[in-house]
């Protein structure tokens, strides 16, 4: 059949993990080989049924590793596993003139001698076979049980579309754009493939329904809405032996010590049913020591923890955490977003307003802007006056006093996750920038001891690794660039402040600028005992859910629905690529496919089968595109022949085939380069 079956992975939501076992490699090799094999088997079987002379059946390209002739056909396994081909008499993309050769067409067993409907059947058989085998893969997976991350919002990025639209921690997303959502991956895909505002429906943590409209952010390589998945209540266990809790945090000093795989069930004898319940309970305890009840799974005879068993119940005391500060109070930048339906929106806050006063306290001198999320939450239910500087239509600024009644909504749970992210003030529903320009320095603070003065600008924060942190992925120098030459990083002091909390054992190195002078200073952050930090250092596994069919018929229904959604997602991906809503740099090639399959195989056979089902759908759709040399291109020429009752012009067909070959090979080279140099295979 075709000299190259194009395999491109168009899912923009792959997550790479770590290297794994030889067994997983074998599973992946077998699975990917099966996807290619069944595609080619479709062409081969129908060709044989139509009595076409099949010269070669090959999996892979390049030099043959194994080759054997049975009857009239050579069966080969080749060195480059990027696809495969079925070579028939009268059909060879490397020599397209065979399709129009009268001499070959005179052979009754040649492809070109067969009626149009038989040639169409042979061409389409590979795609049909992929759809069938993909359905079987998915049905088997759902019969076994497929684990996935539930579509529950873990956190919302301040100022991003989901935050503006009113999505909250713990929300369960059930529909996006009218399509049912069953996993968090589908949330990411629906956002990435969107072309405009998305209707989002779901349920809050108290089970009340909600509806909102989210306008995705299209400034990156793919549209996004700014939500992350939810954690579970089970403590993570690192295979390399790193601590199960974050070093230097209250969790690391728990008595008795916490262990990986412990399941948190209660805080001070109050049951917690979700990670968001745990967060809220710890926030309510502020600077107090809490007693956690955890269930520790027993180990079975094979030495494997049994997570389904009740396990031993242990009570562990965990002390409070406090914000680590340097004694710096910065200037505020503009309001970047106002949340829909929030107290701020009702009070008349606008984007680009700059908060300058709360009551009679000036921001940056009398009130540290980083304290605003907690300060305003503590004023819940009381009407207060907030003064903002607002741009006038004719130029310049004017001060406007707005009256607003804050809600009881704790700060810093939806913290800045990326450089440039704003600081959320959830009590009133605004997100603001915090500019790294010093307005005041606390007496007796590390900043004062280092000689930092008002008016100086912070250009960079660096945090060097500490030996007690272990050797995990976070054991590297953290640098936050605040230089004015990088626009997106100019106003991100709040993000830098989050990094101080994330690495509690590390000292801080600041690069500061005053006039034309630049200095580098080492500071030791101190804990502010009057300012409780809501996170106590737990590293948790992602929340997981299992979709499992109760019967074979239900498994096939679930498999069909999954394949239908996969095919639709691929077409939507192609549309987004052509319209520019999705960057071509989000594509993955054969190396990316192999790595993704390899990582997914570590989640279990059922997860790998779901991936192979998606890959089968991907191969079916891509190969049926109207590109000369692919199945879809052949179908175009056959359709022309069926309608006009004459074969296409030989020169046109040959030129189109070579053009298609150049396009496909160029695209393959492009995605391999993406795998190597962009996605860092």
From TrEMBL:
Enzyme class: hydrolase
SUPFAM superfamilies noted in UniProt: PDZ domain-like
UniProt xrefs under Pfam families: Peptidase_M50
GO biological process: proteolysis
Cofactor(s) required for function per UniProt: Zn(2+)
Membrane topology, as annotated: Multi-pass membrane protein
Entry keyword Hydrolase: yes
Keywords, alphabetical: Hydrolase, Membrane, Metalloprotease, Protease, Transmembrane, Transmembrane helix, Zinc
GO CC aspect terms: membrane
Residue ranges of the TM segments: 6-38, 121-146, 603-625, 655-678
Domain PDZ: 133-206, 223-298, 324-392, 426-486
Family, per entry: Belongs to the peptidase M50B family.
Protein name according to UniProt: Zinc metalloprotease
Natural source organism: Planctopirus ephydatiae
């Amino acid at each position: 059949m075709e000299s190259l079956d194009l395999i491109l992975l168009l899912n923009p939501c792959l997550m790479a993990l770590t290297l794994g076992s030889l067994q997983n490699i074998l599973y992946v090799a077998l699975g990917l080989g099966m996807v290619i094999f069944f595609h080619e088997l479709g062409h081969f079987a129908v060709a044989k049924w139509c009595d076409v002379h099949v010269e070669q059946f090959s999996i892979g390209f390049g030099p043959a590793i194994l080759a054997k002739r049975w009857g009239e056909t050579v069966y080969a396994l080749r060195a480059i596993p990027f696809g495969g081909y079925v070579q028939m008499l009268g059909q060879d993309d490397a020599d397209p003139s065979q399709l129009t050769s009268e001499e070959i067409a005179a052979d009754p067993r040649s492809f070109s001698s067969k009626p149009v409907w038989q040639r169409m059947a042979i061409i389409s058989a590979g795609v049909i076979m992929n759809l069938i085998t993909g359905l079987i893969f998915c049905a088997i997976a759902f019969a076994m049980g497929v684990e996935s991350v539930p579509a529950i919002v873990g956190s919302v990025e301040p100022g991003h579309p989901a935050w503006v639209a009113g999505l909250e921690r713990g929300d369960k997303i059930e529909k996006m754009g009218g399509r049912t959502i069953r996993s968090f991956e589908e949330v990411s895909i629906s956002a990435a493939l969107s072309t405009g505002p998305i209707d989002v429906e779901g349920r809050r943590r108290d089970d009340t329904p909600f509806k909102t409209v989210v306008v995705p952010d299209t400034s990156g390589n793919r549209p996004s809405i700014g939500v992350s998945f939810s954690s579970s209540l089970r403590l993570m266990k690192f295979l390399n032996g790193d601590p199960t809790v974050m070093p230097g945090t209250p969790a690391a000093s728990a008595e008795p010590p916490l262990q990986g795989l412990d399941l948190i069930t209660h805080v001070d004898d109050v049951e917690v049913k979700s990670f968001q319940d745990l967060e809220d309970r710890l926030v309510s305890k502020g600077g107090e020591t809490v007693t956690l009840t955890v269930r520790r799974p027993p180990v079975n005879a094979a030495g494997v923890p049994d997570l389904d068993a009740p396990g031993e119940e242990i009570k562990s005391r965990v002390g409070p955490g406090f914000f680590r500060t340097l004694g710096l109070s910065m200037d505020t930048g503009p309001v970047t977003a106002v949340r829909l339906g929030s107290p701020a929106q009702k009070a008349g806050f606008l984007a680009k307003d700059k908060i300058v006063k709360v009551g009679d306290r000036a921001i940056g001198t009398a009130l540290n802007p980083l304290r605003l999320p907690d300060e305003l939450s503590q004023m819940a239910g009381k009407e207060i006056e907030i003064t903002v500087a607002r741009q006038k239509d004719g130029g310049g600024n004017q001060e406007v006093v707005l009256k607003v009644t804050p809600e009881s909504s704790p700060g810093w749970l939806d913290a800045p996750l990326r450089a440039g992210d704003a600081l959320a003030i959830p009590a009133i529903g605004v997100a603001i920038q915090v500019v790294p320009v010093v307005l005041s320095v606390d007496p007796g603070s590390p900043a004062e001891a280092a000689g930092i003065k008002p008016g100086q600008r912070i250009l960079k924060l660096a945090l060097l690794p500490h030996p007690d942190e272990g050797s995990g992925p976070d054991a590297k120098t953290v640098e936050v660039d605040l230089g004015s030459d990088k626009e997106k990083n100019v106003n991100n002091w709040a993000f830098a402040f989050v990094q101080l909390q994330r690495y509690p054992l590390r000292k801080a190195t600041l690069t500061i600028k005053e006039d034309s002078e630049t200095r580098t200073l080492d500071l030791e952050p101190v804990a502010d005992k009057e300012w409780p930090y809501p996170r106590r250092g737990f590293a948790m596994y992602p929340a997981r859910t299992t979709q499992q069919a109760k019967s074979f018929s239900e498994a096939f229904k679930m498999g069909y629905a999954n394949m239908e959604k996969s095919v639709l997602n691929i077409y939507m991906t192609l549309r987004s690529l052509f319209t520019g809503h999705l960057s071509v740099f989000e594509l993955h090639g054969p190396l990316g496919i192999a790595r993704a399959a390899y990582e997914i195989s570590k989640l279990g056979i059922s997860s790998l089968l779901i991936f192979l089902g998606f890959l089968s759908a991907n191969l079916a759709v891509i190969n049926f595109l109207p590109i000369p040399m692919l199945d879809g291109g052949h179908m175009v020429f056959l359709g022309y022949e069926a309608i006009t009752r004459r074969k296409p012009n030989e020169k046109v067909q040959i030129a189109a085939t070579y053009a298609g070959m150049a396009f496909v090979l160029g695209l393959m080279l492009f995605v391999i380069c993406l795998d190597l140099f962009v996605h860092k295979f």
